[in-house]
Amino acid sequence: MKNDQGFTLIETMVALLILGILGLMASQGLGGAFRVKDSVEEQIKDHETVVVMLKHFQNDCETMVKNADEKSPPSFIQGNTYTWIMRHYSSVQASGWQFVGYTVSDNSLKRYTTPPFRDKQDAAQMLAVLSKDPDLGLASAQLSYQLPRVLQQKIEPYWSSHTKTSAVGLQLSLSRVGMRAPLTSSCIAEGKL
What we know:
Layout: H1 9-62, E1 65-66, E2 76-78, E3 83-90, E4 95-105, E5 108-113, H2 120-132, E6 142-148, E7 150-159, E8 167-176, E9 183-188, E10 191-192
């Protein structure tokens, strides 16, 4: 008579083999799920940085100074490397005029800002200096935000219908790594000098 207590060695090995295969399949599935989760989180973070940069651009454009008297240089200045916008700045601490510069370097769109000029004449003089050579930049400008994975940016003004001394709006176009079509954003200026 046979003793029917317990499992044979072969039955135990088959059970362990089946458990091993199931464990391997589960770990592969979980690894794939974690990779998808990480990829989605990275895309969300990238999307958020794009939204913040576009909000900065929108605000800079809406507060861009329009030359009502058209005696000053345009408040939108574009060089080979930098694009500068003179905007009206207002906060609890200060109010005045500020210069915002955009450039692409090291595959990042970088936004630079100057401290506000409280005196209109000082701001107008700085605008005249900057309009002579926008690529020299401004020593007082500091990096305020950057958007990674940008290959190229193009900011085009919408000029007033009767002159090219007052930009009434802007269009931003960004070519980014891994994207087929550029991102674009447009706005209308509301500020006055």
